[in-house]
Amino acid sequence: MDSSTCKRIKELYELIGPNLMTLNQIATVTGTSKSTVGRYVIENYPEEFRKKRNELCYHYANQKELHPNYKGGRTMEGGYITVEKPAWYTGRKNSKYVREHNVLVCKAIGITEIPKGFCVHHINGNKVDNSLGNLQFMSLSAHKKLHLELKRRGRTYGCK
Q1: CA 92 to chain centre
Q2: At what angle do helices 34-44 and 3-13 cross, to 10 degrees?
Q3: Is residue 117 over pLDDT 90?
Q4: Which end of the chain is less congested by CB atoms within 10 angstroms, N or C?
Q5: Is the dihedral of CA 9, 29, 37, 52 positive or negative?
Q6: Any bridge partners for residue 159, and if so which?
Q7: Is residue 71 a contact partner of residue 36, using CB atoms and an 8 Å limit?
Q8: Closest by alpha carbon to 44, among 3, 6, 1?
Q9: Got the DSSP string for 36-75?
Q10: From the CB of residue 85, how many other CB atoms can be counted at a distance below 10 Å?
Q11: What is the DSSP-derived secondary structure letter of residue 1?
Q12: Beta pairing partners, 22
């Protein structure tokens, strides 16, 4: 496992509170297996910390709207993570859910929706990796050119 994957697992495992993620969710986001994440956790965190985190997982499991598996707030659609549309987000007028990566980029650059003719590109091709370092705001024409060039080079995804 490379150092960037280890770093990402560490960041996600240490999220506490409503953002608490299960080992399965961490594995999905990092593109690894649950057993790999589990081994990393056992090797890098004391038993006391793991026990306290497990208690928090149980606590949130009994408060569905606070648990990360609560389907009313976060779901998958077409391979992308979707979230309930925040009150400030003005895109997708008639929709209750929006793609999480669009919301994150809008919030980061201070806009309320993705303008017509623009999109958010996942640099590494992993549709569930919504870390800001993996998201690129770009015009639809530039996005199309990028994917045509990747296809020409024999790559169907990713820009690394």
Answers
A1: 20
A2: 80
A3: yes
A4: C
A5: positive
A6: none
A7: no
A8: 6
A9: HHHHHHHHHS-HHHHHHHHHHHHHHHTSGGGSTT-TTTEE
A10: 16
A11: -
A12: none
What is the distance between the alpha carbons of residues 126 and 31, in angstroms, rounded to a whole number? 8
Alpha helix (H) residue ranges in 62-139:
100-109
Q: Which amino acid is at 144?
A: K
Residue (of 104, 121, 129, 100) closest to 29 by Cα position: 129
Question: What's the pLDDT tens digit per position in 48-101?
Answer: 888 888 887 766 656 655 555 555 567 788 889 998 899 899 988 888 889 999
Over the Cα atoms of the chain, what is R_g? 18
For residue 142 the two structure tokens come to 């530039």
Q: What is the pLDDT of residue 160?
A: 47
- What percentage of the chain reaches a pLDDT higher than 70? 84
| Spatial distance between the Cα atoms of 12 and 93, rounded to a whole number of angstroms | 31
- pTM for the model stands at 0.55
